[in-house]
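I have a small job for you when you get a moment. Would you make up a two-line entry for one protein for me to read? No commentary is needed, just the two lines. Write everything out right here, beneath this request.
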Amino acid sequence: MFRFAHPEFLYLLAVLPVYLVLFIIYRITKKKSLQRMGDASLVGKLAPYTSGIRQNVRHALFLLGNAAIILAAAGPQIGSRLEEVKRKGADIIIALDVSNSMKAQDIQPSRLGRAKQAIARLVDKLEGDRIGIIVFAGEAYVQLPITTDYAAAKLFLNYIDTDIVPTQGTAIGSAIELAVESFPQDSKHNKAIIVITDGENHEDDAVAAAKKAYEKGIIVHTIGMGSVEGAPIPVVHNKVQVDFKKDNEGNIIISKLDPAALSSISSEGGGKFIRATNSDDGLAAIIKEINKMEKAEFGAKMITDYEDRYQYFLGAGLLLLLIEFLISERRSKWFSQFRLFDSTIFTKAKNKKAA
């Protein structure tokens, strides 16, 4: 497995294209300035040892050398040993509502956007717990099977949007049932489901599903995204809002949080209901509840030993910069005497032979 120990240094690579653009602008400006001075062949004779090719080569080596040094600073590493390590934690599955009503913006940047930010922060705070993600609207789907790979969880989270589930609706009960089935059957861990939704359930009996989950030892928490006053649902086309969703009579639909329904779900599921706001996403309280749960020990396959490979990039970068330093932008006066491809030499020799 390959990784960078200090990936923040990779942002420095963005400076190199800027340098390249500035160099190109400099060359174009210089060429135009020389053209204004007079005929190009005459100007060239005034500086016979100047080499544009050498300048290009030097700058190319400079860019490549610095790119290699930046990669070295980022600390490239290769995982060399896969071991099973013992960890303690709980099993957590997040059921995230991706119905169109989650586009409403009574919570900024939107209900779904705020939920994704909250989940990302939750993942950052997990220590040893296993996490899975389920998305649901009219139907529920497993987005990420339960895992200890937090990087994968955040990666999958980036691609979650309201268009990944083809059937619209809000089937909270189906999401809870799928989450229950998604826990490893032989797991002795404490289990928790976190349902993040606006609570407008129109599809099934979510309260009954939460009760069945709790009977199996699975706690169901709910986080309500939205306000009781509600907000219109934006209609987006090509990432641009063009209108608000309307009913058959042409009236704008207002999507409202249903705290009573979510409270009933969490109550039957033995968990807590938290209402998210712009200042508090509610996950802090849920994390406290999860940390109270007894952590079970389990084995996880992890790469425990990484070998540094920065020296190869550092060596290549220094070598390229050394070559760049040794190359002169001017042609050697001694080497220029050997005009092997000068056509006038052959012309003079031919005329001399004919005479």
The longest helix spans residues 15-37. Residues 332-343 have pLDDT under 50 and may be disordered.
